Amino acid sequence: MIVGLGNPGPAYEKTRHNIGAMVADSLVFSYGEKYTVHRKSGAEVATVRIGGSPVLVAKARTYMNVTGRQIGPLAKYYGVTADDVIVLHDELDIDFGQVRLKRGGGEGGHNGLRSLTSALGSRDYLRVRLGIGRPPGRQDPADFVLRPFPSADRAEVDLLIGNGVDAAELLVQQGLEGAQNVVHTW
Questions:
Q1: 180: number of CA atoms within 13 Å, CB side?
Q2: Is residue 184 flagged as an active site residue?
Q3: Fewest 10 Å CB contacts: which of 36, 55, 94, 166?
Q4: Is 111 annotated as a binding residue?
Q5: Average pLDDT, integer, range 112-136
């Protein structure tokens, strides 16, 4: 299961904090699929076939800080453990435009990850960490992540989204080490 983190609604649609949801959307649409609302969990879901294998792509329809409220029950419904979850999320500690992959680790103040960890009962899920960079000067990180990307960065954002999709597909097809060998050279 691939989970794209973000906040619902048009006010947050193009913010840095929603880059994970943007990548999930791009992945779903690239396979010609559409989301439906899962009746038991309330999350948006779509199934795509990556390398011949069915993969559930999901987004919570809650605010990011409580993502686990919908993703936890969804994982339970499908019998998906943390080991089989790939989370797409924004990362302040990675330069803008870079993509990094890892399994587990801390949440680093990311409340969406904290909520998922609590709901899944483990930190051992895979992560596609989408670099948004640090805020300039003394700007509050919470304010920074909730602001839209500047229009001048649109081409770079599109590239980041495309690379995020490619990274998620590589994780499904090659596993963590194989995907890291490719993605970390970009």
A1: 10
A2: no
A3: 36
A4: yes
A5: 90
Q: Per residue in 85-115, pLDDT tens? A: 999 999 988 999 999 999 988 877 777 888 9
**How far lies 83's CA from each of 39, 104, 175, 176, in Å?**
24, 9, 11, 11
What is residue 126's predicted lDDT score, i.e. its pLDDT? 94
Q: Which helix (H) or strand (E) holds 50?
A: strand 44-50
Q: Residue 84's pLDDT is what?
A: 93
* 77 is annotated as contributing to ligand binding: no
**Is 65 assigned to a binding site?**
yes
pLDDT at 5 over 90: yes
Q: Which residues contact 12 (CB under 8 A, 6 or more apart)?
A: 6, 18, 146
Determine how β-strand 53-59 pairs with β-strand 99-103. unpaired
Q: Does 63 show up as a binding residue in the annotation?
A: yes
